[in-house]
Write a structure and sequence with these properties.
Elements: H1 11-27, H2 36-42, H3 50-82, H4 86-100, H5 103-112, H6 115-131, H7 135-138, H8 145-159, H9 183-191, E1 195-200, E2 205-209, E3 226-232, E4 237-244, H10 250-261, H11 278-290, H12 301-306, E5 310-311, E6 316-317, E7 345-347, E8 372-374, H13 378-381, E9 394-395, E10 404-407, H14 417-420, E11 438-443, E12 475-483, E13 500-514, E14 527-536, E15 557-560, H15 567-570, H16 576-582, E16 586-589, E17 593-594, E18 601-611, E19 618-635
Antiparallel strand pairs: 1-2, 3-4, 5-6, 7-19, 8-10, 9-12, 10-11, 11-19, 12-18, 13-16, 13-17, 13-19, 14-15, 14-18
């Protein structure tokens, strides 16, 4: 890949590309030789030797540099949103450029990834840094909010923690999802290096994180004191990290310190604790509520990441909210202390929510180099027993066929943005997944050819080769049944304060993106939305054999998002650089759906829809579906 050069003097565009290239270089895997991050981690056995010492130092250097950039990126985004004070934004921008052009960052990239492009990157940033010392000159480098979001996404992907889902057994030792967790984080764990969480809480303190996230901490479960991450390669397993926890447990100490940094404290919660106690759970619930996270009372992925100013839902950066004693707490109107032990909310499990867990649906992707797979109709699936997890995505056979999962497109150097766009395929490229390798496309009739417009070629999906293009306003649709556990419908406490009542809400969310273009001649882009529907036992019961077809007319309640993107924004003629900036993932949520008083609820149905405008494809894209429920105690109207 050609070496990058700055575009229009924009250091943020350049650094976002550099971080993408670092991530890509670390993660790239062709099925034979282990990916680079695995080879780096494997070297931990030799870190006492000369080369191992150099790599260990480079891991720390990359960790320090990326966490500092993450802190500065959050500051810049807040300044862009909160104020137009050019001097304040410029000074923080200067700090960012100095961090990105530091020798520490350049040496870490050179050691861990490749020297083929790092020297030119360092030279370009150093040149920008030299000319940017004047505040007046630096004003030309102030980014757009979309530039900051691109950068924040890359930093999140390098630093995030993702743990395995499902029921945790006391004997389990593999707690971490190695493919989804940031590779800087994994390499730091391999070499026992810190990853600093910066600018925490109202005092903007710093906390070192060495062990937190290596194992799942679950209420009521005696967690194994040995944790390890093992990469399963084609020849033999490779241990990425392993750790034996001994009292006082380092991960509990770090968890308490992070909560305290955001002003969530309790005299009964000391750094020496060795299990999730009720007082600790109260602090977690308070943190989760004020940061709009699922009210699980657990150390889940949302909580782990937000404690370090990472937004797991948006796959980006976001500063955590500190403790507020005057908050409108959901469990009562007069006290900040939630009663425990109770479950106030959480996420409902979905099958293959981000398109990467296709094996859970018994699907194998096809095609090269950009693989894909189709969402199957009820007829193609057959009996429900053919779904390995008991439920999964179904293409609505009454709608325009239909959803496919696409693999991320190759990113191009930013020097090519002016003529080609950031991804292979230019202005017509579907871009990169928000998380993992795959994402959902509302309708895509060809396996893919770069920059395609016009009629599909031979081999197109859905019988589109030689067929007429669909009419405008047709919809493509896929859905997934979500059985509702009986425990979710039970109010968390037996009695509530006088004058109040307990109410149950559900919310669906997804990350969405648009091409902001029209492959045909209508002048408007395609749109997408999600809907959450509620069904009772008069229509839906857990199927014993046949799949239950979705029927909105039988739903007892529903909520949906607005179509994305809105027409007012996208009817404008956008230049290529404007399209590239806007082509980021946006979090979309339904309005909270009140389930209180609805009898005999048996299932929810999560629906994704694409609204076709013209051409053959429906360019509405989705990733990382989620459904959350929560209880609140509210005043009686």
């Amino acid at each position: 890949m050609p070496d990058p050069t700055p575009v229009a003097g924009n250091p943020f565009s350049l650094v976002a590309y550099v971080l993408f290239k670092v991530r890509y270089s670390l993660e790239e895997y062709d099925g034979s030789r282990p990916p680079r991050w695995v080879r780096i981690a494997r070297g931990r056995e030799f870190q006492s030797e000369a080369i191992g010492t150099l790599v260990s130092a480079a891991v720390l250097g990359l960790s320090e540099s990326t966490t500092l950039m993450a802190d500065l990126t959050i500051r810049i985004e807040e300044l862009l949103i909160q104020t137009d004070a050019a001097k304040a934004i410029a000074e923080t921008t200067l700090d960012f450029i100095e961090a990105a052009s530091s020798n520490e960052f350049a040496m870490a990239v050179t050691t861990l990834v490749s020297p083929s492009f790092s020297s030119q990157v360092a030279d370009a940033l150093d040149q920008i840094n030299t000319t940017a010392q004047s505040i007046e000159a630096l004003l030309d480098y102030i980014p757009e909010p979309e530039d900051v979001r691109q950068l924040g996404h890359e930093l999140f992907q390098l630093l995030c923690i993702v743990q395995r889902t499902g029921v945790l057994q006391p004997t389990d030792t593999d707690h971490v999802d190695l493919e989804a967790t940031g590779k800087v984080r994994l390499c730091a764990w391999a070499y026992g290096r810190r990853v600093r969480a910066r600018a925490l809480g109202p005092s903007s303190v710093t906390a070192d994180v060495l062990q937190l996230g290596m194992r799942r901490l679950v209420m009521g479960v005696t967690t194994n004191t040995h944790s390890e991450g093992v990469w399963e390669g084609p020849e033999e397993p490779i241990t990425i990290f392993e750790h034996d926890f001994v009292p006082p447990y380092g991960d509990f100490t770090e968890l308490v310190a992070l909560l305290a940094a955001h002003d969530y404290t309790d005299p009964l919660v000391q750094s020496s604790i060795t299990t999730i106690t009720n007082p600790l759970r109260r602090l977690l619930l308070q943190f989760q509520f004020l940061n709009e996270l699922p009210l699980s009372g657990e150390v889940d992925d949302h909580t782990l990441n937000r404690l370090m100013n990472y937004d797991f839902a948006r796959k980006n950066l976001r500063r955590a909210r500190s403790y507020d004693p005057n908050a409108d707490w959901p469990w009562a109107t007069t006290t900040p202390t939630p009663p425990v032990p109770v479950v106030w909310g959480g996420e409902l499990p979905l099958v293959n929510p981000g398109a990467d867990d296709y094996a859970d649906e018994g699907i194998t992707p096809m095609g090269m180099p950009y693989s894909y797979y189709e969402v199957r109709t009820e007829d193609a699936i057959g009996p429900v027993g053919n779904l390995p997890q008991g439920h999964g995505w179904v293409a609505d056979s009454n709608a325009l066929r239909s959803f496919v999962a696409l693999r991320s497109r190759t990113r191009t150097p930013d020097a090519q943005v002016a003529t080609q766009g950031r991804y292979d395929g230019g202005v017509w490229s579907e871009g990169e997944a928000a998380d993992g390798l795959y994402f959902w496309s509302a309708r895509h009739v060809e396996p893919w050819r770069a920059g395609r417009t016009g009629a599909p070629l031979a081999g197109a999906l859905f019988g589109s080769f030689g067929a007429a293009a669909p009419a405008a306003a047709q919809q493509s649709r896929m859905y997934q049944w979500i059985p509702v556990p009986a425990s979710m419908l039970i109010a968390p406490i037996a009695s509530v304060p006088s004058g109040t009542t307990a109410r149950l809400y559900v919310v669906a969310s997804v990350l969405q993106r648009s091409l902001y273009r029209d492959r045909g001649s209508a002048g408007l882009p395609d749109q997408g939305r999600i809907r959450l529907e509620v069904y009772d036992n008069t229509y839906y019961s857990p199927p014993s054999n046949a799949l239950s077809p979705r029927d909105l007319g039988e739903a007892v309640a529903s909520a949906q998002t607005q179509w994305f993107p809105d027409r007012g924004t996208t009817a404008m003629a956008l230049q290529l650089d404007e399209v590239d900036r806007r082509r980021v993932w946006f979090l979309r949520k339904t309005e909270p759906l009140d389930l209180t008083g609805i009898a005999n609820i048996t299932a929810l149905c999560l629906v994704a829809e694409g609204l076709h405008q013209s051409g053959w494809d429906t360019d509405a894209y989705f990733d990382d579906f989620r459904v959350e429920y929560y209880w609140r105690i509210v005043p009686i109207p």
